[in-house]
Amino acid sequence: MSTSRAKTPQTMKPATAAKKLGILLSAAPAEFQEGVVSRDELNALQADPPAWLTDLRREGPHPKQVVAAKLSISTSGLARGGITGPLTTAEIEALKAEKPEWLRKEQNNLNEVRHETVRLKQQNAKARSTK
Predict the structure, then answer these.
(1) Are 12 and 42 in contact (CB under 8 A)?
(2) pLDDT tens digit string along 51-87?
(3) Which UniProt keyword terms apply here (predicted)?
(4) What are phi and psi of 12, to 5 degrees?
(5) Minimal CA–CA distance to 43: which of 24, 14, 21, 28?
(6) CA pair distance 89, 84, nearest whole angstrom
(7) What is the C-alpha to C-alpha distance for residues 16 and 83, in angstroms, rounded to an integer?
């Protein structure tokens, strides 16, 4: 005798969904902030974003992970540069145009870290292949 139960959809908190969508939760509409988001709803938002999501992704304000990525620096570099809150796309573009010394330094730091990571991966792969 088997009892079949309908599967309950997997849901997530709005903060988790916002992070997966790359948006700042506090900038999202109230109905998004106050509800739960199912996996299907998240997939639908990603596949066919509504106007509010498209606008938010284009104009911001953006969460620090997105700001850091748009500036080609780490989130730690943002903090070292004194950027502690979200920025709009216009503010990010202004920083890119101004290119202050701290931003240049952080971009160089991230590039060095990435090059070193690649070098170490290649070195480890070579060491494994010679065993």
Answers:
(1) yes
(2) 999 999 999 999 999 999 999 999 999 999 999 999 9
(3) Coiled coil
(4) -140, 160
(5) 21
(6) 15
(7) 23
Half-sphere exposure of 111 (CA within 13 A, CB side): 8
Q: Is the pLDDT of residue 4 over 60?
A: no
H, E, C per residue of the chain:
CCCCCCCCCCEECHHHHHHHHCCCHHHCCHHHHHCCEEHHHHHHHHHCCCHHHHHHHHHCCECHHHHHHHHCCCHHHHHHCCCCCCECHHHHHHHHHHCCHHHHHHHHHHHHHHHHHHHHHHHHHHHHHCC
Q: Are 45 and 52 in contact (CB under 8 A)?
A: no
- Please count the other Cβ atoms lying within 10 Å of the Cβ belonging to residue 40: 11
Residue 64 near residue 99, CB atoms below 8 Å: no
CB 20 within 8 A of CB 34: no
Q: Is the dihedral of CA 4, 14, 36, 38 positive or negative?
A: negative
pTM of the complete model: 0.79
Q: What is the mean pLDDT of the chain?
A: 92
Higher pLDDT, 5 or 10: 10
